[in-house]
Amino acid sequence: MDRGNWSQVTEFIILGFPHLQGVQAYLFILLLLIYLTTVLGNLLIFLVVCLDSRLHTPMYHFVSALSLLELGYTAATIPKMLSNLLSEEKTISFSGCLLQIYFFHSLGATECYLLTAMAYDRYLAICRPLHYPTLMTSALCAKIAVGCWLGGLAGPVAEISLVSGLPFCGPNRIQHIFCDFPPVLSLACTDTSINVLVDFVINSCKILATFLLVLSSYVRIIRTVLRIPSTAGKRKAFSTCASHLTVVLIFYGSILFMYVRLKQSYSLDYDRALAVIYSVLTPFLNPFIYSFRNRDIKEAMKRQLTRSGILG
């Protein structure tokens, strides 16, 4: 294409849920309540782990890191989604769109790595309990967490660089609830097969590799637990993994279908539904999963509320 015959698009219009225009106000209230609950819930878990010395163990350091991560992960998309529900224009600048994609994918990649690290921590605790205190030290835990963040932040750089060099000269309506690689690539005025291939390879390596590592850890954990003679011992061992495994199944169950594919889109409504699951519902459910299913965190919350005078 002759670049002299087109003008570069400077902003996009995020369509969101066009079939639900009549209930935008209700969607705004629902999403706002979910977002506030997500922020307060994850912030509460982070603060409880930081303040309660009994939770200063590698397992709960990872839980607090995950809660902190969810605050940034949701901040990358939900505030703009809320703004679009109230706005008629629903626009976002080209650079703003790329920034949203970058932070959403970098923090999503960080979550993949962090969930993998948490699975490895549970593997060591259950399969090698005698060596666990010497293998998973606080220093190693901190290094792993930092490595997860750095690896995640570096992840989407290549993809963002490729997208930023594409010409966008025609339609600027993004058929999605936020900026993401597949819907943005579909608007480019040139062949994007290289971008799609690079996106597929990176996502496959990132998502599939971490998921297989998590799966491998749990296969070994299950084998070890099944060899425990007592029913109470098996129940106790499984209880330490239940919360993490629930989060893994919800998170990976949606992103695997969304990003590990060569076809850019199967159905617009299908993509939107998956996006709601991994961008809104998973961070929303995490505090409930870790607080309601975890006795240590529930007891720590009660101790902190008692010390603050809220509970008598």
How does this model look, in words?
- The protein is mainly alpha-helical and 312 residues long.
- It has helices spanning 24-51, 58-75, 78-86, 94-127, 132-135, 138-154, 157-164, 181-185, 193-226, 231-259, 268-292, 295-307; strands spanning 11-14, 91-93, 173-174.
- The model has no long low-confidence stretch (mean pLDDT 87).
Structure classification: mainly alpha
Radius of gyration over C-alpha positions, nearest whole angstrom: 21 Å
Which strand order spans the largest sheet, edge to edge or round the barrel?
Answer: 2-1-3
How far the N terminus sits from the C terminus, by CA atoms, comes to 72 Å
Number of strands: 3
Give start-end ranges of low-pLDDT stretches: none
* Total DSSP helices: 12
Main sheet: strands, sense, barrel = 3 strands, mixed
| Overall pLDDT score | 87
Oligomer: single chain
Q: Name the helix and strand elements from N-terminus to C-terminus, one letter apiece.
A: EHHHEHHHHEHHHHH
In percent, how much strand structure appears in the residues? under 5%
The level of helicity is over 70%
Shape: globular
